[in-house]
């Protein structure tokens, strides 16, 4: 049994299952409840209607806070803000620039890796097909 008869599917599955846990592709915000119940998260925050200053930059939430605070559930990061007019201090969800950059470079690295692997597979397949075609031509020449 040669390698070309197996096809690429087992290798794709092996590669995906190896790299999947490291990229966090399925991280996302939970679905919004649509059952008509109003909660504190649905009320309009002061930073949506007035000017504010950022008191603490975007920081990562700990595991407990991610599960209990609605602001931490969406992105896993939160920043502390103070509204200028009312003086109210609130937290709001934010995206970390360093985390986004890290995800970008992970994606770029994975695409480079997959591109390299598939380029090598294409070269291997092309050489195999060239050898088969050359062998058929030689058989046709010998038959004459």
Automatic annotation (TrEMBL):
It is a single-pass type I membrane protein. One of its GO terms (cellular component) is spindle. Required for normal cytokinesis during mitosis. Plays a role in the regulation of cell proliferation. May be a component of the chromosomal passenger complex (CPC), a complex that acts as a key regulator of mitosis. The CPC complex has essential functions at the centromere in ensuring correct chromosome alignment and segregation and is required for chromatin-induced microtubule stabilization and spindle assembly. Increases AURKB activity. Inhibits apoptosis induced by TGFB1. Overexpression induces swelling of mitochondria and reduces mitochondrial membrane potential. It comes from Acipenser oxyrinchus oxyrinchus. Residues 1-28 form the signal peptide. It holds the Pfam family JTB. It is found in: Cytoplasm, Cytoskeleton, Microtubule organizing center, Centrosome; Cytoplasm, Cytoskeleton, Spindle; Membrane; Mitochondrion. Gene3D superfamilies: 3.30.720.220. One of its GO terms (biological process) is mitotic cytokinesis. Its main location: cytoplasm. This is Protein JTB.
């Amino acid at each position: 049994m040669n390698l070309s008869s197996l096809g690429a599917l087992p290798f794709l599955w092996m590669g995906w299952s190896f790299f999947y846990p490291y990229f966090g592709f399925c991280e996302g915000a939970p679905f919004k409840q649509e059952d008509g119940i109003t909660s504190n998260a649905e009320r309009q925050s002061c930073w949506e209607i007035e000017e504010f200053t950022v008191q603490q930059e975007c920081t990562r939430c700990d595991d407990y806070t991610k599960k209990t605070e609605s602001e931490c559930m969406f992105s896993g990061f939160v920043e502390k803000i103070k509204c200028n007019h009312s003086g109210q201090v609130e937290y709001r969800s934010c995206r970390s620039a360093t985390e986004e950059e890290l995800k970008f470079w992970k994606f770029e690295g994975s695409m480079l890796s997959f591109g390299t692997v598939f380029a090598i597979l294409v070269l291997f397949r092309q050489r195999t097909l060239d050898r088969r075609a050359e062998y058929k031509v030689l058989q046709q020449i010998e038959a004459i």
